[in-house]
Design a protein that fits this description.
Order of helices and strands: EHHEHEHEEHEEEHEHE
Strand order of the largest sheet: 4-3-2-5-6-10-9
Mean pLDDT: 90
Largest sheet: 7 strands, mixed
Strand content: 15-25%
Number of helices: 7
Structural class: alpha/beta
Length: 305
């Protein structure tokens, strides 16, 4: 596993905390920034290795733009579950915030570890895991810029967690890792393995019904054009047929069966309604679509003994 250090050393990568001038991991690679412009989008099969490789490279390449575009909404230490703005401080899906003090919590697909920072402020001991080294660099940037003790970060694939059995009290994921994993049954088993009995596993994903509709915020996104039951992955690939982005679809029933088979009990399934006061669009999420179809599904599960 790789921590937030320069590969092959024990020293953190150099940063400019004042200007956040973090060198790009793709700096100097010819055509890296323009490669996605020519990618072909299609539905085809994509296995574990191909999906994992594509996710790592895509998020390394796009982390800067993602944080620039969504950083204000996410905040530095806000724990929001979805574009609808559902905050853990309000819904308490991980339980009473006071009970998080001293708890070991694993955030999966953490990005810049905003949720982990919120957990740390409540006395928890979070570990932020992401497949993207670049996203974890942004976590360190935020911590150094605010003069905080850095959040513990680990670079790894969520389907192969580098932790001992029973290492954590809870696990969470806000739109991270789950949709990008080719074998989410295995991912669920891995989360179950690293949790202690009674631990909560809460994760949010794009609501599965959205896969039947075009990913557009306007009226064109209100007409179903695909089968909800088609589990063929969505793939973007380069001119050589190499996947550059992969996302996987599972129905609601699929998700429930994966959790139960892994040894979890599903205690809640939250489908947030779009808040009347929220006018911001986020990709295919918009007030128009939110008024008609759900955009997010949040699964709340507990590890059986």
């Amino acid at each position: 596993m790789t921590h937030s250090t320069t590969p092959g050393t024990d020293e953190p990568r150099d940063y400019d905390p004042a200007g956040y001038d973090v060198p790009s991991v793709y700096e100097g690679v010819d055509g890296a920034e323009d490669a996605e412009d020519d990618d072909e989008a299609l539905r085809r099969e994509a296995g574990e290795q191909e999906s994992s490789r594509a996710s790592r490279h895509w998020w390394d390449r796009n982390a800067d733009d993602y944080q620039d575009e969504h950083g204000e909404f996410l905040g530095d230490d806000r724990f929001t579950w979805c574009p609808e703005g559902v905050d853990e401080a309000d819904v308490r899906l991980l339980g009473d915030p006071a009970a998080l003090k001293g708890a070991d919590v694993l955030e999966i697909g953490s990005g810049a570890a905003q949720c982990s920072r919120w957990l740390a402020a409540r006395g928890a001991r979070p570990v932020a895991l992401d497949i993207s080294y670049r996203q974890l660099q942004h976590s360190r940037r935020i911590d150094l810029g605010r003069g905080l003790e850095p959040v513990a970060v680990v670079q790894a694939d969520a389907a192969v967690l580098p932790f001992a059995d029973g290492s954590f009290d809870h696990a969470c994921s806000a739109y991270g890792a789950v949709p990008f994993s080719a074998d989410t049954g295995r991912l669920m088993r891995e989360v179950h393995r690293v949790l202690r009995p009674g631990g909560r596993w809460v994760f949010s994903v794009t609501h599965p019904i959205r896969w039947a509709f075009p990913d557009e915020p306007g009226v064109e996104g209100l007409t179903a054009t695909s089968s909800y039951f088609d589990r063929t992955p969505y793939v973007e690939q380069d001119e050589n047929g190499v996947a550059t982005y992969v996302e996987h679809h599972r129905t609601l029933g699929d998700r429930v069966r994966e959790l139960v088979a892994a040894g979890f009990a599903l205690v809640d399934l939250v489908e947030p309604e779009w808040p009347e006061e929220l006018e911001q669009e986020w990709g295919g999420w918009s007030p128009l679509r939110g008024e008609h179809i759900p955009g997010t599904a949040i699964f709340v599960a507990v590890r059986n003994g």
